[in-house]
Amino acid sequence: MRTAELLAPGDADAGVVHGVASAEETLRRALWDLEERLPLAEELARFGMYDLDLIANRGTYDDGLRRILGIEADHGTYEDFLDAVHPEDRGRVRAAFQRTVRDYVPYEVTLRYIRPDGAIRWLVSRALLDRDAMGVPIRLLGVSIDVTEAKERELAIRDHAEERARAADALRGSEERFLRVAEEIDDAFWFSDVRPGGTTYVNPAWERLLGLRAQDIARDPRCWLLVIHPDDRARVRQEYKATLHSPTPCRFLDEFRLLRADGEVRWVRARGLVSPATGTAPARVSGIAEDITSRKRMEQGLRFLVDISALLSESLDVDKTFRRAVVRAVKGRSASAPPCPGATGQAICRWRRTSPAGPLPP
């Protein structure tokens, strides 16, 4: 019998009955709207619900969950579901289920589900356990949310962080190996930011070659220019300045003399690379310097022997020829060259002291 038939027309409570009927109609409409909108909400939010009968071992899935799992059947056993869980997650999912049934705790687990088409979806599954009057578990009512996109972003960020960490470790390892090699080589090596107080590294060979301390070079990376011999300094400064202002990376190669604080003159062959400044990054210079003093002395000695040979072909007067060769060698040698270089230079010095012809002419 309908509600309206319970009361006769004109009954005093007709208004109340009418109100109840209106409320029922409103409730029916609300439930109908909810039923209509729930599938849309499930599709947009990417979640689905399930009801697992623990007694019959039968799970029922709604349309939202079927879409996520990529299946057509609306039911299946717990084992069917577990078989589709990623092998790496299967043990953890089984343990969470057993703990819920045994300890009556809420079920919550994050897992990877392998769809029939091979696609892998990340799910967060939450459920509550229902028990009968005797406390025996009978149902598991839950919801699964598809979090694949968020999880993939999370994993991408984590992988990127791990990759950067590995790259940093590899860089530190390379730097350590490089420094071990740099500390042992005989050639002088350096790199620096071209700015006061910039990062500078020089190996021990560079300190020995220049006669400067590492802290002096670190305080002013350009202080090595002050050690260049005065006769070479202007030329080297000009070339160095030109490379620093190059808009593209450029290499340099030069030979010049160093005048150390102890007065010793050393010839060096410097080569390296200048990287121009980019944005906020300063220009950087790295290079290696080889001590070629011995080679220069040998070259000077060879030139002296060539001169003697040429002069002997013009005159058989050995003493006069030797004097002329010495004069030519002294005048041709830079005043800053090392005194009496090598065996040939020492022979010249001894000849100057012992020659019966007297001292060399100016």
Structure, explained:
Helix 9 (293-312) packs antiparallel against helix 10 and helix 9 packs across helix 11 (342-354). The protein has helices at residues 14-45, 63-69, 78-84, 87-103, 148-184, 204-210, 214-219, 230-244, 293-312, 318-332, 342-354, and strands at residues 47-53, 58-61, 75-76, 107-114, 120-131, 137-146, 188-193, 200-202, 250-259, 265-275, 284-291. The model is unreliable at 1-8 and 334-362 (pLDDT under 50). It is 49% helix and 22% strand. The longest helix is centred in the middle third of the chain and has 37 residues, at 148-184. It has 362 residues and is an alpha+beta fold. The strands form two sheets. Strands 3-2-1-6-5-4 form a six-stranded antiparallel β-sheet, sandwiched between helices. Strands 8-7-11-10-9 form a five-stranded antiparallel β-sheet, with helices on both faces. The protein folds into four domains: 25-146, 2-Layer Sandwich (Beta-Lactamase); 149-184; 186-291, PAS domain (Beta-Lactamase), CATH 3.30.450.20; 296-354, no CATH class.
List the helices and strands and how they pair.
Blueprint: H1 14-45, E1 47-53, E2 58-61, H2 63-69, E3 75-76, H3 78-84, H4 87-103, E4 107-114, E5 120-131, E6 137-146, H5 148-184, E7 188-193, E8 200-202, H6 204-210, H7 214-219, H8 230-244, E9 250-259, E10 265-275, E11 284-291, H9 293-312, H10 318-332, H11 342-354
Antiparallel strand pairs: 1-2, 1-6, 2-3, 4-5, 5-6, 7-8, 7-11, 9-10, 10-11
Helix pairs in contact: 9-10, 9-11
